[in-house]
Amino acid sequence: MITFQEEQFDPFFNEAQDLFREHWQELALNQVKIPMDLDRERYQNLEKSGMLFVLTARKDGQLIGYLVAFPMTHPHYKSAGLMCLTDMYYIQPEHRKGAGAKLFIEFERRMKERGAVQIMTGCKRHQDHTALFEKLGWTNSDLTFVKVLV
Amino acid sequence: MTFKLAHLTAIIARELEKSADSISASTTLEDLGIDSLEFIELLQAIEDEMGRVPDHAIAHIETVGDIVKYLP
Q1: Residues of B in contact with A132 (CB under 8 A)
Q2: How far off is chain A from B32, nearest CA to CA, in Å?
Q3: Mean pLDDT computed over every residue of chain A
Q4: Chain A residues touching residue B35 (CB < 8 angstroms)
Q5: What is the DSSP letter of B28?
Q6: pTM of the prediction?
Q7: Closest CA of chain B from A96, distance in Å
Q8: Residue in A1, A97, A135 nearest the CB of B41
Q9: Three-class SS of residue A21?
Q10: pLDDT tens string A80-139
């Protein structure tokens, strides 16, 4: 059975190294010019500041996926309340039978429990989850562009 | 088979174009061969006819029987 739970960053980071690599290899653009190099200290500092949320997916205790996000007030909308932007999310391919939807439903439920007023996420054009997000009640509100300068 | 399970099975069979005989309470989401989008679409079709599954329960749905358990 797949379970979803919030976890502390450091033990998750240690355990998730293979999944980070799989995730990056599957998804990242410009892998030669922009290599993966997760900034552990930055994540630790965010956690100390209360601005890191780690939700894991485990099957029979084995880590199979995660959703990492940054809960904080938005610098543009300070008085509006807590918002949360996803940093990264991943489910191993062999477990993608509804687990992705459950991951996002759990993320939303837990953010509501924290009193968040808005959640934000995104996806790559080449792995477009628009249909799923819209089915889950999300609104496609922004476009993001990238230009590599090296 | 309870009425609720029979009704649910009929909905799943219709939505996924499968034989109702191939679906039982122990049928898993993996057995149904659906991805996340299909799971949500299926859940919405079920909720349209049978009532809402609580948000907190969705993460715990692994089988057709689990859906029956959480339906009102």
Answers
A1: 36-37, 40
A2: 9
A3: 96
A4: 96-98, 100
A5: B
A6: 0.93
A7: 6
A8: A135
A9: helix
A10: 999 999 999 999 999 998 999 999 999 999 999 999 999 999 999 999 999 999 999 999
ipTM of this complex:
0.87
Distance of CA B7 to the CA centre of its chain: 10
Least CB–CB distance from A98: residue in B36, B55, B56 = B36
SS3 assignment for A46-71 = HHHCCCCEEEEEEECCEEEEEEEEEE
Q: How far apart are CA A123 and CA A133, in angstroms?
A: 10
Structure tokens at A31: 């892998």
**Residue tagged 């659906």 (tokens):** B34
Provide the 10 A C-beta neighbour count for residue A6: 11
According to the model, what pLDDT value does residue B63 have? 95
Distance CA B8, CA A34 (A): 49
Kindly compute the dihedral angle of the four CA atoms of residues A90, A96, A99, A100, in this order, to the nearest 10 degrees: 50
A102 → chain B, closest CA residue:
B59
CA distances from A149 to A33, A39, A40 (A): 9, 21, 25
Candidates B12, B35, B40, B47, partner chain A, best to mutate (most A CBs within 10 A): B40
Asked if pLDDT for residue B1 goes beyond 80, the answer is no
Question: How many Cβ contacts (< 8 angstroms) between chains A and B?
Answer: 51
**Residue B62 DSSP SS3:** coil
